[in-house]
Amino acid sequence: MANTRPLALRGLTTGFLAIWLIAALFPFAWTVWGSFKVEADFFSRESWWFAIEGTRTQAQTGGSFTLAGYEGAWIKNEFWKPVINTLIVTICVTCISLFVGTLGGYALARSGQRYAFWILIAALVFRAMPHITLVSGYLLPFFQLNIWGVLPTTIVVLVAINQPFTLWMLHSFFLSIPKDLDESALVDGCTRFQAFRMVIMPVMWPGVVTTGLFSFLLAYNDFAVTSMLLSQDNQTMIPKIASFLGSIQNEGNVMYAVAAVVSATVPLFVLVLFFQRQIVSGLTAGAVKG
Amino acid sequence: MPHRAFFAFIFPSLLAMVLFITLPIFSVLVQSFYVEHDAILTTVESCGPFGCDSETKVDTEAMAKLRADAPLGKFAGFSNYLNRNHLAVAEVGAIFSDNNGIGDIGARLMNLPFYRALAFTLAYCFFVTPLAMALGFAVALAVNTIPKLLRGPTIFVSLLPMIITPLVGSLILSWMFNPAGILGAGLQHLTGDPTLSLRASPALTWAVLLLYGVWTNGPFSFVVFYAGLQSVPQDTLESAKMDGATRWQSVRFVIIPHLMPLATFVALVQLMDNFRVFEPIVGFSAEANATSLSWLVYNDLVSQDSAQFGSAGATSVITIIGVLILLAPVLLRTWRDFNRKVV
């Protein structure tokens, strides 16, 4: 079909696509490049050409590239601590979400009852709740129970907040597995749980991986919950970057924040690079079923 | 599936949702009816070499005890909802009874924190959602025409604005729009106004925030529509062409109707997500010119002296009601469909 298009139309689509790709990629490329420069280059009042050539960076450090921003973020401001916290939180949230979610999603997909439908609808409403409104409900009880500020609380809260989404997604993946499969397992003498674990789960892996990716992203990208529920010492990356910003801007070390932001972006790039197909299929799975 | 097995399977998930989603909603509702305790004042007489002074101070000890006894604060009924920081009933009444035309009403409403936040939240919802969908649709159509080999990398790049952490994405753009950043400086150069900046211009702040929204929401529509395009019936397209349909007509009368169910889904998801817009306001430090409902709650919770749970609760409850209103058409439709299915 492509070669039957008139030249003007082809030019138009190519041009449009090129503009979109630049808009999508350029901010990242620019920030990554700039993170290796000094502030006077990245935020150059005179000319953006400074940021490309690194004029001031050369004058201040002797080379066109500098690791000063990364050094400041990772060593001086101990950015590795929040990185470890993020690692713990995201891994735990992903695993627990999947464990709890596969059980629930399976039940919802296999029950034709009215209440199963209502649970799905309730989950849809819960998914729409702004997270910060829920957070304002957590704080007082958590203070009273003295469980505020620690990682386990945050992990459990993130699992619960992600549950509606996880349920919907896994439910639609389970629906795509034929019912005969578990019914024949039941006939062969399996219990429900055995059928679930030994017959259904082995063919569910693609769905589990995809849902796991999204659970990971939700936990990784969260700011509302982690910024309010974690104490200063237990902060994860994203709230750390936010609190960084306030304290650093005064000291003229914006480049630390830039370096931290780039560091937080890298895992996401790698994730898209390796799991592009799963992400696309996950986004469309919900759509096709919805 | 038997009832018992069903509940055994769903129990952990249900428990998590009841404990951490349903209960907090009630907790928020209860909080919203309370305000911070009044300060307990004591008069302390301190005598020095130059005579005695009596000084009024906050009695911290008594306050601590009171807070421990009644952590929620003082019952206040609906006053949290009606005061100036929320629905501002008295102020709105005054504005409507005495004003100089529509423009004046709008300007004065925009001075009330709640209405300011509501205005931006709704504007964000209803500008960003359709624009992002249009962008996504256009990109999907364009990607569908390029050679297969190039599609993978194109999709990779297109996914980035969506997958990025909202706070990080908005920080990246806000640095570029900084007066000393590449786009900010470029804008100053283009308009010839050397004082133009996000901080100084509310209009620019809104525009940049909406731009950010379209940038970060577009890819989702793109992916869904692109997947939908793969299943457009080719023979319908062929026959439309034979009947003399132009390209535009086959897009309008074949492709768009085919994608309509997907579009409803995308619109629903994006409306829900955009209604809770929050991180961009923190990332762009836009609070002077644009705030959102979620940001109001956040601001109450992190306020300097002590968290204002009552005020945060009231805003939260109003926000939740907003979500329900937004979802009402969908819920009604699903309910009707479901009943039809059962009958």
TrEMBL record, chain A:
Its main location: membrane. GO terms for biological process: transmembrane transport. SUPFAM superfamilies: MetI-like (SSF161098). Belongs to the binding-protein-dependent transport system permease family. The keyword Membrane applies. The chain crosses the membrane at residues 12-33, 83-108, 115-139, 145-170, 199-220, 254-275. Keywords: Cell membrane, Membrane, Transmembrane, Transmembrane helix, Transport. It is found in: Cell membrane. This is ABC transporter permease. PROSITE patterns: ABC_TM1. The lineage of its organism: Bacteria, Pseudomonadati, Pseudomonadota, Alphaproteobacteria, Rhodobacterales. It holds the Pfam family BPD_transp_1. PANTHER family: INNER MEMBRANE ABC TRANSPORTER PERMEASE PROTEIN YCJP, MALTOSE TRANSPORT SYSTEM PERMEASE-RELATED. Gene3D superfamilies: MetI-like. InterPro entries: BP-dep_ABC_trans_perm, MetI-like, MetI-like_sf. It is a multi-pass membrane protein. Residues 83-277 form the ABC transmembrane type-1 domain. One of its GO terms (cellular component) is plasma membrane.
TrEMBL record, chain B:
This is ABC transporter permease. PANTHER family: ABC TRANSPORTER PERMEASE PROTEIN, INNER MEMBRANE ABC TRANSPORTER PERMEASE PROTEIN YCJO. Belongs to the binding-protein-dependent transport system permease family. GO terms for biological process: transmembrane transport. The chain crosses the membrane at residues 7-30, 117-143, 155-177, 203-229, 250-272, 309-332. Residues 118-330 form the ABC transmembrane type-1 domain. It is found in: Cell membrane. Keywords: Cell membrane, Membrane, Transmembrane, Transmembrane helix, Transport. Its main location: membrane. CDD domains: TM_PBP2 (cd06261). It is a multi-pass membrane protein. InterPro entries: ABC_transporter_permease (IPR051393), MetI-like (IPR000515), MetI-like_sf (IPR035906). It comes from Cypionkella aquatica. GO terms for cellular component: plasma membrane. It comes from the Bacteria.
